[in-house]
Write a structure and sequence with these properties.
Keywords: Glycosyltransferase, Transferase. It holds the Pfam family Glycos_transf_1. One of its GO terms (biological process) is carbohydrate derivative biosynthetic process. The structure is a single chain. By secondary structure, the protein is α/β, with parallel strands linked by helices. It has 2 domains: 202 residues, Rossmann fold, CATH 3.40.50; 173 residues, Rossmann fold. 38% of the residues lie in helices and 18% in strands. It is built from 14 helices and 16 strands. An 8-stranded mixed sheet has the order 3-4-2-1-7-8-9-10. Strands 13-12-11-14-15-16 form a 6-stranded parallel sheet, with helices on both faces. A two-stranded antiparallel ribbon has the order 5-6. A hairpin with a 2-residue loop joins strand 3 and strand 4. The N terminus and C terminus are likely disordered.
Length: 406
């Protein structure tokens, strides 16, 4: 570290706490991984605290997004209602948090979830006078299907989940979430105020747009193949277009709904048109997005949708459910279309609008996706978090504070 460094440019020592982190595949894990790598590229020392991905636990150096960082893998158990999720042991988290913070002595703790790791780190950080920043990716709909809680008790459970979230986030100096709608959602369910909307961001330059005309009709979906993603509606929509447009659907991702969806595709007579790619490499994912004609996101529980941003960075028009934060990315009639959540008929109609657009109109939608996603480049995101880490004010949309402060 150079002696001439000023407080505004001095590298920071940052602890990022996650209940889910790579190799897990979901939006929260991907955001934490990309943010950590970008911070390392900016010269900061980054430590990740996360559940071990197997029975092996300890501290070692890992490479994520091409960058080396220290990862503290906590002893974890498998959450068996979920197909792969592991969790850090709740009764050990405060002792582990105190130990790690005493060893690392960070300038700031940034937790990504209140459930286990965020709770322990925020408590230990406050005890030590360490600045705390919290980011919320939590949606009850994403969690309930794996809790085994009877439906009659689910609303009571959701209220308890929000109370737990509130306790952890009230310890933070600033609370963020990916979009303004997600911020309003968090504020409506807790006593939190002034939640900041800061995009998850992505490395826009990692994706390749093919702005030429398409010779076939390829629809692509990327995400967890689970109930709240409503991929069944997408398969039903494709079935409506199979004879008219010879549509092919590629589903990139895996989850507990894969077998039922394969059965549904067979039942609807489109099994030969629906390709389940499963979990794939980053290279495969990017190629799938580049060669597709349109991206479809029928999910009803997106706080931002990194997958949708990846598609937009690949120059794709998007057809998405008019739910939660998706309208922040999909501007109806500009870079694609919104449809009524759960309405497979309307989804089919909007896919038809994209796939039958004139070459000029199709190119306009592609270019608008590129224009919109440019503001979500990871560099904008990391600079905003650097300001928060240093205690500098930012506006409600994550920009440097001017007329509005958080």
């Amino acid at each position: 570290m150079a002696e001439s460094s000023t407080p505004a440019t001095k590298p920071l020592r940052i602890v990022i706490g996650c209940d889910t982190f790579a190799p897990d595949v979901n939006g929260a894990a991907k955001f934490a991984e990309r943010l950590a790598a970008a911070l390392v590229r900016h010269g900061h020392e980054v430590h990740i605290v996360a559940p071990a991905a197997s029975r092996k636990h300890g501290t070692w150096t890992e490479v994520h997004e091409g960058e080396r960082m220290t990862v503290h893998r906590l002893k974890s158990w498998r959450w068996y209602p979920h197909p792969w999720l592991r969790f850090a042991l709740p009764w050990q988290i405060e002792a582990n948090s105190r130990r790690i913070l005493d060893e690392v002595k960070p300038d700031v703790v940034h937790f990504q979830s209140h459930i286990v790791v965020g709770r322990g780190l925020s408590v230990a950080a406050i005890e030590r006078g360490i600045r705390v920043i919290g980011t919320n990716h939590f949606m009850p709909n994403n969690a309930l299907q794996f809790t085994l809680i009877p439906e009659a008790f689910q609303q009571r459970a959701v209220k308890a989940m929000w109370r737990a979230a509130q306790r952890s986030y009230l310890r933070a100096e600033a609370v963020t979430t990916p979009t303004r709608r997600a911020a309003e959602f968090l504020e409506a369910n807790t006593s939190l105020h002034n939640v900041l909307a800061i995009s998850c961001g992505l490395n826009v330059s990692d994706y390749t747009a093919d702005l030429g005309p398409r010779t076939d009709h390829r629809v692509v979906f990327v995400g967890r193949v689970e109930e709240e993603k409503q991929v069944d509606r997408l398969i039903r929509a494709v079935a409506q277009l199979k004879d008219e447009l010879d549509v092919q659907l590629e589903i990139v991702g895996d989850g507990d709904q894969r077998r039922p969806l394969e059965a549904l595709a067979t039942e609807l007579g489109v099994r030969d048109r629906v390709h389940f790619a499963g979990r794939v490499s980053d290279e495969y994912l990017r190629a799938a997005l580049t060669r597709a004609s349109v991206f479809a996101m029928p999910s009803i529980a997106e706080l931002q949708s990194i997958a949708t941003m990846e598609a937009m960075a690949s120059g794709l028009p998007v057809v998405a459910a008019d739910a939660m934060a998706l309208p922040h990315l999909v501007h109806d009639g500009e870079n694609g279309y919104l449809f009524e959540p759960g309405n497979a008929d309307e989804l089919a109609a909007r896919l038809r609008d994209v796939l039958t657009a004139t070459p000029e109109r199709y190119r306009e939608m592609q270019q608008e996706s590129l224009n919109i996603v440019a503001a979500h480049d990871i560099e904008n995101t990391v600079r905003t978090f650097e300001r928060l880490y240093r205690g500098e004010p930012v506006g409600a949309n994550g920009a440097p504070a001017g007329n509005s402060a958080h």
